[in-house]
Amino acid sequence: MAIYFLPKPPFFLNLFLIMFPWMVKAYMTDADALLRIKQSLNNPEPLDSWKLGTNPCDDLLTWVGIVCNKGIVTNLHLKSMSLSGNLDLTALSQMAGLRIISLENNSFSGPIPGFNKLGSLKALYLSINQYSGEIPSDYFTDMTSMRKIWFDGNKFTGKIPSSIAELPNLVELHLEDNQFSGTIPAIGQRSLNSVNLSYNNLTGEVPPGLAKFDASSFEGNPGLCGAKFGKMCDKVNPRTPKSTEKSSKKALRMEYILMAVTLLILILMIVGIYILRKRRKRNSETIGIMEGNPEGSVGLTICNISKPEAIPGQNGFGTGQKTLMARKKSTGVDLMLLNNSKGVFRLSDVMKAAAEVLGNGMLGSSYKATMSNGVVVVVKRLKEMNLVDKNGFEAEMMRLGRLNHPNILTPLACHYRKDEKLVIYDYIPGGSLLYILHGKH
Ligand SMILES: *[C@@H]1O[C@H](CO)[C@@H](O)[C@H](O)[C@H]1NC(C)=O
Ligand SMILES: *[C@@H]1O[C@H](CO)[C@@H](O)[C@H](O)[C@H]1NC(C)=O
Ligand SMILES: *[C@@H]1O[C@H](CO)[C@@H](O)[C@H](O)[C@H]1NC(C)=O
After folding, report:
1. pLDDT value for 307
2. CA angle 438-295-374, nearest 5°?
3. Which ligand is the nearest neighbour of the Cα of 107?
4. Nearest-ligand number for the alpha carbon of 127
5. Which long-range CB contacts under 8 A does 383-388 form with residues at least 24 apart?
6. I need a surface site. Which of 22, 24, 201, 282 has the fewest CB within 10 A?
């Protein structure tokens, strides 16, 4: 990278860091990071020994408060230096080897900085500062290396962050002399050997995992109860009725929710039934009732397939159109459903279906029609029935529809018009068409 060939002056460095912030990580050394941290302090005089151009890990240990290991800064000990300001956390996070930070007995204030971005930290000493406000409950979630937490002597408020309970290697926990309140989370790591939660405003019971620490680890919390404090927190306490009240309130709320859900389901059911009924009504209306146009396009499909020989070698489309017009003028009676084992469908559904000629027989032609809903039927156009009248035809079809003989395929629907008689059967792959053709006729 070209940047390595640049001269030392910080002007260029800063320019580059501003222009290419992603290079910060690649370039920033521990010395650079420390100098930026020094710059971020309000009163950095105690750190005068941190000088540009010298090495913080020099054997002579000329940089105050710095501990190194094999040339990498591991500890930052800035105890009792009257320091304050907003520490440059970006710079801090560039120090990959940093494991221990001590800012003990200084004047840092405000909410807790994002030290939790330094995931490898093992010890954090913030004792005796002016930090205040709540610590987010998940603050320690990513600090799994954390062994020592010393936050005593600040002004922290709110609950003790529950993520402390999940630190697997925690050894020392010092939160005394703050204003933490509420109950103590279920802290109880076996690794713990020093705990002090004294002089806060904690309430309730000490979690079982902390029972091994004696009362002097908890003193100055008037709300704590248990054998340690000569104050029983048994269930007859004023806490109990409160909690039952709460739970009964909860139950009541639950009941309301259940009621609302039931009501909603009922309404949905009623609406559903209404829609279903309306649809069914419409269906039964359309079947067997006069209808104008939908069959139009349809007639075309069937005609083109059914009478290829009838089209005298010329533009088939024109012919189709003509028959279409003729049909429109005649009646537009829909299908008469004989059997709804294949669901309810209309003449238009059959006509729009992809059709395939199965055969032209003595009694008429047959087509295989695959409807858009996937149902496959056989459409049989009857020639010889032209002599039969409508009532006779339909009566015969209804009779067939009721038949349940293994050798006779029962028709699903039929269609009667003066110039067109159709019978629709269920399609049976590989089945012989012969028995379709041989009804009683
Ligand atoms: C805190 O630091 C001050 C100097 O800033 C010093 O006088 C004092 O003794 C220190 N207190 C503790 C408890 O270390
Ligand atoms: C301690 O907490 C209680 C509520 O639990 C509150 O009323 C009281 O003011 C708090 N005391 C202090 C010193 O913060
Ligand atoms: C806990 O801290 C309080 C106040 O600083 C102190 O009096 C007490 O001795 C400490 N107890 C332990 C076990 O460290």
Report:
1. 32
2. 65
3. 1
4. 1
5. 384/441, 385/421, 385/441, 386/421, 388/421
6. 22
Ligand 2, atom nearest to 182 Cα: 5
**423 against 95, higher pLDDT:** 95
CATH 3.80.10.10 in the chain, residues?
A: 9-229
Q: Is the pLDDT confidence value at 20 over 80?
A: no
For ligand 1, say whether the CB of 43 is within 6 Å of any of its atoms.
no
Please name the fold of domain 298-438. Phosphorylase Kinase; domain 1 (3.30.200)
Tell which wins on pLDDT, 318 or 9.
9
Mean pLDDT calculated for residue range 89-116: 94
Alpha carbons 439 and 338: distance in angstroms, whole number: 15
Q: Please determine, for residue 239, whether its predicted confidence score (pLDDT) is greater than 60.
A: no
Q: What is the pLDDT of residues 111-139, one digit of tens each?
A: 999 999 998 999 999 999 999 999 999 99
What length does the chain have?
441
Which residues, 6 or more positions from 226, have their beta carbon under 8 angstroms from its beta carbon? Answer: 205, 206, 232, 233
Residue 374 carries which DSSP code? S
Q: What is the reported pLDDT for 284?
A: 43
Alpha helix positions (H), 334-417: 347-352, 390-402
In the chain, which residues fall in CATH 3.30.200.20?
Answer: 298-438
Closest CA to 147 of 100, 112, 102: 100
pLDDT digits (tens, 9 = 90+) for 325-352: 333 333 445 778 887 777 777 888 877 8
Q: Does domain 9-229 have CATH number 3.40.50.300?
A: no
Beta strands per DSSP E along 63-107: 66-69, 72-77, 100-102
- 3-state secondary structure at position 123: strand
Pairing of strands 201-205, 411-417: unpaired
Tell me if 144 CB under 6 Å of ligand 1.
Answer: no
- Exposed (0-12), middle (13-18) or buried (19+): which is 13, by Cβ within 10 Å? middle
Q: Which residues are 123's β-sheet partners?
A: 100, 148
pLDDT band at 103 (very low <50, low <70, confident <90, very high): very high
Q: Could you give the CA distance from residue 64 to residue 192 in angstroms, rounded to a whole number?
A: 31
Q: Would you say the CB of residue 217 lies under 6 angstroms from ligand 3?
A: yes
Q: Distance, CA 82 to ligand 1 centroid (Å)? A: 8
Pocket test of ligand 3: the residue of 154, 172, 175, 198 to mutate, having most ligand atoms within 8 Å of its CB, is 198
Residue 100 per-residue DSSP state: E
